[in-house]
Every structure is written in C-alpha cells, then in structure tokens.
Write a structure and sequence with these properties.
heterodimer, A: alpha/beta, Rossmann fold, 22 strands, B: mainly alpha, two-stranded antiparallel sheet, 23 helices
Chain lengths: 453, 483
C-alpha cells in the first residue's frame, strides 16, 4: 500500500520503519530537512520537505494515490488539519495523533466524524491503559488479551530461583498440568517458537498463552502470583500519568504522583482530586523513602528521561516494591533495561506503532489478505495474528500434528464459537473458527503462509 | 566496514554480468563467428567467481552504511570491467589485457575512447558486447540489478546514491527498487524508439542497435572507421536529437508521465542545457561555414558535434580535429559541462555548474556587503549550505584529479600538450575523442600501458563522480577502527 506519514518524530520514524518492513511504500513529510536526510539514509522511504497541510506538498508526496495517511506531528491541530486536507484530496484512511486531553473527551467522536478521521490515536492514553492492565494483574508479568477476554498471553521472566529453570517443555507440561501453551521464548536478542524438547534456561523470557483462569492457576503454582496493587506511586506528572491516575482512582486505588515542577503539580492537583501530588525531586532517595517507597505495591516511572526511569525503577525493585513499571522510549535502552532485570517496560512508541501496523494490515485485508488482528509480543519480535478460517481453507479437518508447519510458527489457539481451545496435536480446525498463530522472524500475510510447501 | 556484505553484493553483480554476457554470445552464434567460445568461457568463469563469492561471503548482517555503499559501487565497476575484458583477450580481438581493460572500462563508463585501430576487423559479437556495456553502464549496473533482484539490503539508497550521477539524488517513488525499475523502463522505451527511428531511416539492423546503445548510454563506440560520416542526414539528425534526449534528467520524463508538465518547464537546468546547446551550435556554425559551404550541412555538422560533446557521447560525423581553434575550444569547454544531473551523460553536470555559479555570486556579494544574507535557490527551492559546500569541494577535487591525470599521462613525453590535455579531459568526463592524436578519427592505442591504466581509472573516477573510487582507494577506510 502507499502510505504517507506526516511528521518524522519518534513515532513517525518508528512507524515508517515498521511499515516499510511490512512491504508498504512509505513517503514521509517533515519540515526539517536534517531529519529527512537521516531517515532516508536508514530506511527505504521517500521524503518530502515541507508543511503537511500544504496542498502542493501533499500532492508531491503522492496523496492522490495514497491508501493511508498518518499524521504524527507535534501539534494536534496540525494533525487534524492535515488529515482533513488529505481526506479531501482522496486518501482512503486517515489517522491522526490527538493527545491533548481537552480533545480526548466527547468532542473526539464529533471531530472524528466531521474531519473524516478513520482513527485517532492517543499514545499517552494507550500507554496508560497498558500500564493499568499490568498493575491490575496480580503478578509481575505483562499480559495481553486477544480478541476475546478469555484468551491471554503472559510474558514472564525466568529468574534463578524459578522452578522452570532448566526444565524441558515436555517435563514442564507434566509438572504443571494445566491447559496452556508456551508459545515463544526470548533468549538475549533471539526469539524461538519452541517445541517440546526445548529447555528453558534461567534468564529467558517466556510467553505463555491460555485462558485467563488457567493463566492465574499456572502463575500461582509457579509462585509468580503477587497481590494486586492497591497503593501506587507514579513518578513524573506526564499526560500518561494523568490518564493512569484517573483510571486507578476510579477503580478505588490510592495514587501518589511525584513531580519536580511546581507549576505542573498545581495543574495536576486541579485535574486529579483524590490523588496525592508531591512536589519534589523524584530521583532523590530521601524523598522516595519519605513518601513510603517501601510500603507501596507498585511503582511507575513516567518521567521524560528514559535513563532516569530505568535507574529509579531499578532502585524501587531493590526496595522490594512488588511491581515496577518503567516507561522507556528508545529502542536501544529497552533491550538494555530488559537485561538489567526490569520486568515491565512500556514504550509508547511501540504501542502506537503496533496499532498503526495492525491497522495497515487490516486495511490490506479489505484488499485480500485475511489477518483479523495483529499483536506484537516479546518486545515486538514475535507476532501473534488472528485469522478467520474460510470454508475453503487447506487446514480444515487435519489434526494439527499432521500439518507440516514452517519453522518458528505455531497455532496457539483456536476459537470456536464462545469456546477457546488451547490446542494439542490431536485438535482439528473447523470452518469459521478463528485461529491465533504465533510467528517469529517472519511476516505472515495469509494463513496458508504457515504451511511448509 | 561490513566486508562480507560488500563481497556478497560483488558476487551478485558478477553473476548478473554472466547473465548479460549471454546476449553477445547469442549475437555471435547468430553470425556464426568463432568469438562465441570466448563469451562462453567468460560466462563460465564469471558464474564460478560469482557463486564462489556469494557462497563464501553469505552474511546475516545486511546493514550497510555510506562507506559500504561507496565500496560496493567502486569494486563492482572495477570487477565487472576486469571480467568484461576477458572476451576481448580470449577471442584475440584485443590480445593485450591492459588494452582490453581500457576498452571495457571505456565501455561501461560510457566514454567511448577506443584503442582498436581497425574496428571493421572485429567480429559482431565483440562489437555488440562493446556497445552493450555502454547501455548497461549508462543507467548504472547496480541500478539495473536493483531493479530486477529482490532487495539486496534495506539501505540500498547508499548504493543508488553512490552510482547515480548528480549532486542531489531524490527517489521518484518511495521504494528504491521501484525507482530503479521506473528509470530502466523509461531508458528501455527511449532506446527502443531510437532503434525504430534509425531502422526507418534505412540503417541496417545491427548498426541501428549498436548506435542506439551508444547514444542511450552516451557512450560513443562506433563500428565504422570514420564513425557516422557515411550515414544519411536523417540518421544523423535522429542521433543528434536522441543524444540530447539522453542528456536530460530522467526524472523529468517521469514527471511527463505523471502529467506534471509544470515541474518540467520550471526546471532551470533543462533550459540552460538547451540554451548552451543552441549557443554553442550557433558559434560553431559561423566558425565552420567556410568549410561546409551549405547552411544545412553546416548546421547539421555543428549541432551533431555539439550534442555529441555536451552529452559526452563522443560520436562524430566530421573530423573536428581539422576545425578552427575557436570551434575546438568551444567543444573542449563543453566537455567539462556535461549533461544534466540524473541523465546518462558524464562531465561536471549542468546543475553543479549552476550551483557553482550561484555560490560564487553569493560569495562576491558577501565581500561587498559583509552582513548580507542570501539564499541560493534552484528551481524555486532553496539549496542548503552543506549541499553548496560539497559542490564546491567536489569541483576542487575534480580539478585536482584532472591535473594529476594530465601530468601522469604526460610522463611518457610522446604527445603534444593538446593531445594529452584533451585526452585527460575527454576520459575524465567520459566523452571519448579528444584532439590531436586522440581526435575523432584517431585512437588511444599509441599510449603506453601505464597511461592506459591511468586513463582507465580517470574514466572510472569520472563516471562514479570521484567519491566512491576515492574512498575505496584509501587504505585506512578498510582497516578496522579508523575512519
């Protein structure tokens, strides 16, 4: 597809990278020629320098033949305006990043309709939702829901004292006999889709799919279960913090926000009535301890500086805070933070890009491919795709063990009606099922791609 | 330095060369000439070499940066010339390997400088191969492989940029591969058009093909001892016009296809290029009227030669060696200018000349009004200072290298200054013929082996616009930890 991205900031760049990898033709528009020079050196994209609201600039970028227009410039108003222009110049789908909370209330629906926006994304809100999910889950793991609530993936880190260390997957099945599937294993920078003979090593990160209830049981017997967070401390009064605090307060948690900017603190106290706002330097050990770091259940670090988030989160883990979430935006630092042992890392950039890539795939869907939804798990290295089984599919009626699947692919779940099946080798796929396929190191477009030809 | 990737890509290029060598093989089979064997042997050698390189250097890490791009381009051009020279040696058409290398480099770099004394003695396959190197080299060997092979690397822009002529390289469409495809399609269509028009003018099939290749790549290898003198005025005019067409930035043709006619008319480089052609032809016409007597003949002779030199093709319909000094001087100056950026022509490129002129003007203004601020604009868009600076630096290196080549070939003390200087200028700008001994009816065979190697590298430097080859020849680029 032809995709135009206006604005070449962090998210624009990441989206351009991922969408080119997907095989789309990407054109980026930005005002700053240096940024453009940089991006065309790294990725196979075309660049147009100028204002993305300008008619001539949009035409130069090929707006007339474009299928998708993504506006991720600094200002919400510019994003809306350029999407409006793009829509009227003939783009099929427009997506604008709108992050000002003042637009993210009821007016959003009205504006979306009248500007012809296909989607409005708010990275801060998305990040807040994801952090909320992590906090809500009573374990130190990241979980994600698939299309239905009763199918989840949990990513957990195998620590030294874990019972999983050095266990073969078949043995694990015997020892912990629930209905689940280990669908991906990340070791260092590599990911594997394992088979039964795979041995889990200490330091691995494993992805487990199961129904929500089964996941709870498994985590309990693995001693990963911790009590649900009630007292939460948030460092940095960013937009994400505001969204998150609101959600947490509404579900009856007690929240404390620390920010070192007195003006911002005053603002926060206006928006957030039930939240305790502390004005002070969050990197000061004294302050953190004074505010009860040792007594809280969860610590969320959301300052604008990645390094600060990583280091303070590490400090919080050392103080035995049971759940620590750090916001890290730069890719290089994400893998480093992972290696340092932080278990929950949130990247707005990744969340947003996943949605954009998923949207592009869904759009392509309407041109023939049949990916229903796309999730990226294990730091974006593994894709989980949901496919609809058409009545003419080649996979129907064959026991899974007899299908010759390609390396690094796995059928991790079958959804039949309201039931979720965690499949074993004897299960078969029926027409109108939905299946969830895990794939590492490759990009699937169609369900038949997983078959070994 | 990602050396594995460099040599892996090199292997792919050699395999591609094996594939294109099949074409002259077919030609020689059609004419039932013995040189077929030499092509067959070369195909086998290059296949073996290509597979060896791609197997040995298969690498996981496909990330390349600017310097790898430079190295890939420079090494590719040297290697394909070295391999492409084999058929000449094996078939015995050009027994000396250095001579054959010179001839092949001259072909790929679309120079058209030849060391062959009697062209008519060469078999058809060899003649075809010689001219086909022009056609492939004109648009770029690597651009060609990018158009047909699934993406080599994500960062192919570094290769594209290193191979395509001109100071600013922009892509036509988001994907480098699609850009390469579009360029080659336009190239093929225009070449085919010329071929048909020449056929209609009564030129034999083989001659039409050879001359279409020569014009398209702005090369200039002929197949007659007196080049194009014997063909009809119609054919000469067709070739004149097509030489001019191939000297225009190919992006403009794409704009025409997109019906963006306005941006074509706004292109100041195009207008300057056409103006230069008209003015130079007019000056020369007045100057040579006394030789040719009739107006039509004079205009044809001057236009053809001017078009041939400004696009750095190097075909001739007259021995301009015999022309008055003014005409020769005008031609010599045109050799420096070259065609438009983004065309198949060599030389400095008009766009660079324009940018040089504008930055000189700005500097002079700055001396008069030290606090003045002004922006240099090209086609209505402002050109940033780094681009201007790099153009100035390019010009400095260009002149420096030209002098080095001039001195090196003067070492043998055999030829006049006119011959040596025009040979250096002509090879460095990928024109072909010069003046004196190396004039349109002469050739480069009298130079020593050393001078031929110097001139071969001058041609490569000119075609690749200096940097790729320059960086590849600096040893410290290759050692770890430095640069």
């Amino acid at each position: 597809m032809e995709i135009i991205i206006a604005g070449c900031g962090k998210i624009g760049m990441e989206a351009a990278a991922n969408l080119t990898l997907e095989g789309h033709s990407v054109t980026v528009i930005d005002k700053n020629p240096n940024v453009l020079n940089n991006i065309i050196n790294i990725y196979d994209v075309m660049s147009v320098c100028g204002n993305a609201v300008n008619y001539e600039i949009l035409s130069e970028a090929g707006i007339k033949n474009a299928d998708m227009f993504i506006a991720v410039m600094g200002s919400d108003e510019l994003n809306m305006l350029s999407c409006f222009a793009a829509k009227n110049l003939g783009v099929k789908s427009t997506i604008a990043r709108i992050r000002n909370p003042e637009y993210n209330d009821k007016s959003l629906g009205f504006m979306r309709q009248h500007l012809g926006l296909s989607m409005a994304i708010n990275p801060e809100l998305l990040a807040a939702k994801e952090i909320f999910n992590i906090l809500k889950l009573p374990a130190a793991v990241k979980t994600e829901h698939f299309s239905r609530r009763n199918f989840e993936i949990a990513e957990l880190k195998v620590t030294k004292d874990s019972a999983l260390c050095g266990l073969k997957l078949i043995d694990m099945r015997e020892k912990f006999n629930f209905s689940y599937l280990v669908c991906a294993i990340q070791r260092g920078s590599e990911v594997f889709i394992p088979n039964g003979n795979f041995t889990i090593e200490c330091g691995d990160k494993i992805g487990i799919t199961a129904s929500a209830a089964e996941i709870q049981k498994l985590l309990k017997s693995l001693n990963y279960l911790k009590k649900q967070a009630r007292n939460i401390m948030i460092l940095g009064g960013s937009k994400t913090a505001v969204y998150l605090a609101k959600m947490l307060v509404n579900t009856g948690n007690s929240v404390k926000i620390i920010d070192n900017n007195p003006v911002r603190c005053a603002e926060l106290s206006k928006y957030l009535e039930k939240v305790v706002i502390i004005n002070g330097d969050g990197s000061s050990r004294e302050l953190l301890l004074e505010e009860g770091l040792k007594d809280i259940d969860a610590f969320v670090s959301l300052t604008g500086i990645d390094e600060e988030n990583i280091l303070i989160s590490l400090y919080a883990s050392m103080q035995n805070v049971s759940k620590v979430v750090a916001k890290v935006n730069r890719n290089e630092l994400i893998s480093m933070a992972d290696n340092l042992g932080l278990d929950s890392i949130i990247s707005q950039k990744d969340i947003t890009t996943n949605i954009l890539v998923g949207y592009a795939r869904a759009l392509e869907n309407s041109f023939g491919s049949n990916v229903e939804t796309l999730y990226k798990v294990m730091d974006g290295k593994v894709e989980a795709l949901e496919f609809n089984i058409r009545p003419d599919s080649k996979l129907i009626g064959i026991p899974l063990k007899d299908l010759s699947l390609k390396k690094d692919t796995l059928i991790a779940g079958i959804m039949r009606g309201r039931k979720t099946i965690i499949p074993n080798g004897d299960d078969i796929i029926c027409p109108n099922d939905k299946v969830i396929v895990f794939a590492a190191n490759q990009r699937l477009r169609d369900l038949s791609d997983i078959l070994f030809k | 330095m990602n050396r594995r990737m460099i040599f892996y890509t090199l292997g792919k290029m050699i395999k591609l060369e094996a594939a294109i060598l099949v074409l002259p093989l077919i030609v020689s089979l059609i004419y039932k000439e013995p040189d077929a064997l030499s092509f067959l042997i070369t195909v086998l050698i290059s296949l073996a070499l290509g597979f060896l390189l791609t197997l040995v250097f298969k690498s996981k890490n496909k990330v390349i940066y600017a310097k790898e791009g430079f190295a890939i381009v420079a090494l590719t051009w040297i290697t394909i010339s070295a391999v492409g020279a084999l058929p000449f040696v094996i078939s015995g058409s050009i027994p000396n390997y250095i001579d054959a290398f010179f001839e092949t480099v001259s072909g790929f770099t679309t120079t058209g400088a030849s060391i062959v004394k009697d062209v008519t003695a060469l078999p058809h396959g060899i003649l075809f191969w010689r001219s086909f190197t022009h056609w492939i080299g004109g648009m770029g060997v690597i651009v060609f492989i990018m158009a047909i092979v699934p993406s080599l690397t994500d960062r192919s822009i570094h290769i594209l940029r290193a191979e395509m002529p001109g100071p600013i390289i922009g892509k036509l469409v988001p994907k480098a591969k699609d850009t390469a495809k579009i360029l080659y399609l336009i190239y093929i269509v225009i070449t085919a058009l010329e071929f048909i028009l020449l056929l209609l003018g009564g030129m034999p099939v083989f001659d039409s093909l050879i001359h279409s290749f020569g014009t398209a790549g702005t090369g200039g290898f002929g197949i007659k001892p007196n080049c194009l003198q014997d063909y009809s005025p119609y054919c000469k005019w067709v070739i004149t016009i097509f030489m001019l067409i191939f000297g225009v930035n190919f992006n403009l043709y794409y704009f025409i296809l997109l019906k963006r006619i306005k941006s074509v008319f706004k292109n100041c480089e195009l207008w300057l290029y056409l103006a230069l052609f008209v003015i130079a032809s007019a000056v020369i016409s007045f100057n040579i009227y006394s030789i040719y007597k009739t107006v039509s003949e004079t205009v044809l002779q001057s236009s053809f030669q001017v078009a041939s030199i400004i696009t750095t093709t190097g075909y001739s319909t007259a021995d301009f060696n015999q022309w008055p000094t003014l005409s020769k001087t005008v031609l010599l100056i045109l050799m420096f200018f070259g065609g438009c950026a983004g065309s198949t022509a060599g030389g400095l490129k008009i766009q660079r000349v324009v940018m040089l002129y504008k930055s000189v003007k700005r500097e002079l203004l700055k001396m008069l009004h030290p606090s003045s601020v002004s922006t240099v604009k090209l086609d209505g868009k402002s050109v940033d200072n780094p681009t201007l600076n790099s153009t100035n630096i390019y010009f400095a290196i260009y002149i420096g290298l030209l002098f080095i080549v001039f001195i090196l070939i003067s070492l043998e003390n055999k030829f006049s200054i006119e011959t040596n200087f025009s040979a250096a200028v002509s090879c460095f700008n990928n024109v072909g013929p010069g003046f004196g001994t190396v004039g349109p009816l002469g050739n480069y065979s009298a130079y020593s082996g050393f001078s031929k190697m110097v001139l071969s590298f001058a041609m490569l430097f000119g075609r690749l616009e200096i940097y790729p080859l320059l960086f590849t020849l600096i040893p410290s680029v290759w050692t770890k930890g430095r640069f």
